[in-house]
Amino acid sequence: MKSEPKEIYSGITSRKYIFILMMGTAVVLSFILDIMSGPAWLSVREVVLALLGLGDSTGHAIVWVIRLPMAAMAVVVGAALGIAGAEMQTILDNPLASPYTLGISAAAGFGAALAFVLGVGVVPFAEEILVPFNAFFFSFLCCLAIYFIANKKKGTTETIVLAGIALLFLFNSMIALLEYIASADELQAVIFWLFGSLSKATLPKVAIVFVVLILIIPIFALDAWKLTALRLGDNKAKSLGINVEKLRVKAFVLISILTATAVCFVGTIGFVGLVAPHISRMLVGEDQRYFMPLSALGGAFLLSVASIASKLVVPGAIFPIGIATSFIGVPFFLFMILRRRRDFW
Amino acid sequence: MKLEVFDLSYSYSTTPVLKGISLTAEKMVTAIIGPNGAGKSTLLTCIAGLLRPEGKILLNGTDIRKMDRDDFSKALSYLPQDAPSRAVLTVFEAVLLGRLHSLKWRVGEEDLGIVYRVMGELGIEELASRTLNELSGGQRQMVSIAQALVKEPEILLMDEPTNSLDLQRQLELFELIREISADKQITLVTALHDLNLAARYADHIVVMKEGEVVSSGSPNKVLTCEMIESVYGVHARVSVDEEGIPEILPVCSAGRRKNHK
Ligand SMILES: Nc1ncnc2c1ncn2[C@@H]1O[C@H](COP(=O)(O)OP(=O)(O)OP(=O)(O)O)[C@@H](O)[C@H]1O
Ligand SMILES: [Mg+2]
Q1: Could you give all domains of chain A from N- to C-terminal order, each with its CATH number?
Q2: Along chain B (261 residues), what's the average pLDDT of each consecutive run of 10 residues?
Q3: Is the terminal CB of chain A with fewer CB neighbours within 10 Å at N or C?
Q4: CB contact B196 to A (< 8 Å)
Q5: Structural contact between residues A277 and A287, judged by C-beta atoms closer than 8 angstroms
Q6: DSSP letter, residue A120
Q7: Which residue of A has its CA nearest to B128?
Q8: CATH architecture of the domain formed by B2-223
Q9: ipTM for the complex?
Q10: What pTM, to 2 d.p., does this model score?
């Protein structure tokens, strides 16, 4: 019964490729279904023809102007949040770490609310630019704040998590304050933004998130082994020659950019960043070469399915995707947790 | 590789934990013994380059602070005393991480071969595709040991490697380590609590107490009733077995320890 090391290892990894392939397929399918679904259902043929630029003009308009931007936004934002959550949990060694639980989404919400309550309406079209810009600015600021607070205490992972939770409460209460002083219209806009929504998606916005993803993924990929080794504990990682502090800072900056870009266009869809990495970890473990791609695909899939569901719940209207994400994500997540036979954290 | 430590001092905050430690270790098994809190782990952490102590640490005559980071981390493997990781990685993947310095995106066959060989030597190849979080404490410890060995280091630092290992594994581990260190000319420095293991397998013993080296030399020279009484506060009988190896039989505590901190 002597087997080759190579065979044993490929036995371990081939399962992971299968999961990634399956999840990839699922994303493609849900993406197409997402484009098909809506007040006027399109057939697969119509969608494919429109995407290739061969269909009739109504189909073309529905797909390219309305459905594609939203469907693509769901995929890229889901992927970005999935990766952000995965890397956050990795560098902070904490299963609760995610853009949502560390207050980064709340900071984005505060930025957006600030724009709605104090800025929007002053300049025409300001909402288009000011809201995402503000959201980006404040979520990035939140990341920096977490980092500097933590750095004061030599960057232990506990301090980072605690600082993040403190900021979550701070930003939530500042949002509440803005809601309190807002007019009825402003209040409505703020609340709708906080629900999370893909309805403001446009192809240029999708392109921005996509470009950020494409730039950041390779940087993480280059550090894949080091990030995996970080899970062995700081001392072990250091003795393997890793500059742990530097790796943490670098990853944290990348995560901040990724999260800020993702949430600034769609609002608070934080749950994906918490759940996708957990699902990915249960399926392929924590070797980053599989863990990161599957977290991205898992996030994309969850958000894509939520996007479909948000169109089906109330026929003719679009239900806020943030709510749909939680309604779909929570039972799925609980199912995964209860079904598993072993401890994953 | 020759390891020399000169006049090493370190304090975490204000109280000094290491007070002028000097020792030399060369191509053999050096055991560091001493009561809890003596500074054994701190010393090993300093040698592993994870803390910045005062004094000098030389590898083959070169100060480790002047060594290239990569060369240094390639030459030295360190097994921390911390509880081993429970990450969701299979045993194979976890051991593979010990070869971090040579891992590319695609894992090379040489790395796979070394990992598999070391798992075989430690008798954990059966566990290859189990994940760390479903192993027993001792099995996880074996994985950490394998991780330290696959690097094929010239200096191997092990902080209480026998933690949570059963009797047979403890003996086998040291048999194996002796074999490897003779074969590959590895210098092993290990913190150890089991005096009988130290007596049997160490070539050189360094006794530490309260941050100082109180005695060092061959097991026969160091392991005496007087040393055990003064360092551990324990009455013990020390006899010499037919192979000439000291055997320690603790009898009773010499009263409650005064300097419990
Ligand atoms: N991170 C730390 N911060 C502050 N003090 C520390 C730290 N680590 C260890 N110490 C202190 O330094 C002293 C030496 O600790 P060390 O871990 O080196 O002892 P040891 O000889 O390895 O003990 P043991 O046999 O229990 O492992 C102890 O008094 C301990 O309380
Ligand atoms: Mg110790």
Answers
A1: 73-339 (1.10.3470.10)
A2: 90 89 87 92 92 89 87 90 85 92 87 90 88 87 91 91 88 86 86 90 91 90 89 87 85 66 44
A3: N
A4: no
A5: no
A6: B
A7: A8
A8: 3-Layer(aba) Sandwich (3.40)
A9: 0.86
A10: 0.88
